[in-house]
Amino acid sequence: MNPTLDPEQLRAAMRAWSAGVTVVTAMHEGRQSGATVNSFTSISLYPPLLTITLQKTAKTHDFILKSRTFGLTMLSADQSHLADLFAGKTAAEDRFAGLQTETLVTGAPLIVGGLAWLDCRVFETFDAVSSTLFIAEALAAQTLNDGEPLVYHNREYWNLIRLV
Hints:
mainly beta
């Protein structure tokens, strides 16, 4: 594939897109991994399907491929430090050290304090050159917090202002 658009032009354009921030986690052979992801979308309520996309070089990518399961924590506005931690912006040997986690069905760790959790089983994968698009079935969902979401826009975290 020979891209026609300069990656920096696309990156600049994508900065105009605001998105909630999630941490995707997986457990495989007793080890856990997690990554910050904002490429997450619900695609169907029945059956309950969603997508995430991960770079193939991400450690969490391999954990999900091997375990075929993952957890997704939708971060609250006061969890930007966790978004940075799981994005690799904060150095840490063990990203889960000192974090309180829970599990639902699959055993994937879910981060306490998020707005909601989804526990998922991979339904199908699609190769997307340097990334993989994972389509997954949500096996369990739990809403934990009615606080404000963590929003990412133009390379910064933002607070929402309710207009109505």
